[in-house]
Amino acid sequence: MLFETNRSIDKNYIYTQTDDNLTFVSHVHSSYEFITVFDGELECVVYHERVKLTPGKAMLIMPNTVHSYSTVGSSKSFLCVFSPDYISDFFNDANVGVRGGGVYSLFDFNDSLGIELLKDKSTNKYMLKSVLYGFCGAAAPYIVKGYDKGADGELSVKLLYYIQENYDKPISLKMIAGEMGYNYTYLSNVFNKIFGCGFSRFVNRFRVENAAELLRTTDKSMVQISNACGFESIRSFNEQFKLDYGVTPTDFRARQRTV
Q1: Fewest Cβ atoms closer than 10 Å to its Cβ: which of 48, 131, 170, 256?
Q2: Using CA atoms, how far apart are residues 106 and 172, in angstroms rounded to an integer?
Q3: For 69, what's the count of Cα atoms within 13 Å in the CB-facing half-sphere?
Q4: H-helix segments, 140-198
Q5: Fold of 5-144
Q6: What's the CATH architecture for 150-256?
């Protein structure tokens, strides 16, 4: 699952995926994100708030909202990321969603036909809009508003955008502190508080997730993937990947191709 800023600001952008045991680090993007669970249980963390997702429920997350996922036991889920222009009336409405100060909505959901239409690449844009507006209509009465992200929340968005734009290069928190004009110690404390781990660990996890996507979807060599994702060396790539996935990148790719 990639949430790069150059993808999430595109017009007419829509992306879907079905996952077993979804887990993904904190991220942010300029699109809406819809997620529902078919089986098991998912936990979504929105800033510091934990939201439980179980079958029969769905969640709509507003643009520029920091969130992450983790599976509780096991899960099977469907996720759709789509640009605001698909639902421009909802996006611009002063009483709901982003304009209304909304952060997310947790609501009852049972629309298997809508999901199938989103997954079908032949579905025309008018039908896609109809489906997505249906989701927004169901979500509208339950939007969480007036959520005080505070200074730390705003800073977390800046940090995530910076990481997403620069993870393929050598970066450090000291470098970011200098560029953004923050005290390094303050920034380090905020980062650990928001994301629950150190900067280097978080960035490496983000790099690993992007590497896993390239392993699944391309034939690029291990050296190419390592370089593209900003690892210092093949050794570092292998070590970090095994730390998160329990297998080497080579074994991970082999398993994907036997599924």
Answers
A1: 170
A2: 36
A3: 28
A4: 150-166, 173-180, 184-195
A5: Jelly Rolls (2.60.120)
A6: Orthogonal Bundle (1.10)
- Domain spans of the chain? 5-144, 150-256
Longest Cα separation, the chain: 52
Closest CA to 33 of 20, 52, 46: 46
- Locate tokens 């708030």: which residue? 49
Task: Give the number of other Cβ atoms within 10 Å of residue 220's Cβ.
Answer: 14
C-alpha span between 114 and 97 (Å, rounded): 21
| CA 64 to mean position of chain CA atoms | 11
Name the H helices within the chain.
Answer: 5-8, 88-92, 112-119, 125-139, 150-166, 173-180, 184-195, 199-217, 222-228, 234-245, 249-256
193/161 Cα distance (integer angstroms): 18
Q: How far apart are CA 53 and CA 46, in angstroms?
A: 13
The distance of Cα 216 from the centroid of its chain, to the nearest Å, equals 18
Q: Fill in the DSSP letter of residue 86.
A: G
Q: What is the DSSP letter of 140?
A: G
Tokens, residue 35: 């997620």
CB 249 within 8 A of CB 224: no
C-alpha distance across the termini of the chain, in Å: 18
8 A C-beta contact, residue 240 and residue 212? no
Instruction: Say whether pTM exceeds 0.85.
Output: no
Q: In this structure, what token pair is assigned to residue 34?
A: 């819809």
Query: How many residues would you count in the chain?
Result: 259
Q: Residue 107 is encoded by which pair of tokens?
A: 């609501």
Identify the pLDDT of residue 1.
45
Q: How far apart are CA 208 and CA 171, in angstroms?
A: 15
